[in-house]
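Recall the central idea of this unit: under ordinary conditions, the amino acid sequence of a chain determines the structure it adopts. In this exercise we apply that idea directly, starting from the sequence alone.
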Amino acid sequence: MTQLSCPMARSMVSDYIDGDLPRDQARSLEDHLQTCQFCPPLYASLVETLTELKALDDVGGVDQLVRRVLAALAEPPGPDDPLPRRA
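Accordingly, the structure predicted from this sequence is:
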């Protein structure tokens, strides 16, 4: 089994979390996470962040944000706007 470098392991984490990593690569990543002193905290942080994002399920907040952005884009530029808006 090939030993992974940290950059290679980190590039595989997303596919691993999604279950899209082939079994041999998943095992290599798991081995790396068991022996590396740097990657496990980063992996754990990513898993925790994804878990928290999935728990939010705040569709209303997204809808409100979209309405605010569209309303701001529809307003004519004010004298203090730093950049002109494109039509």
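Residues 39-56 form the longest helix (18 residues).
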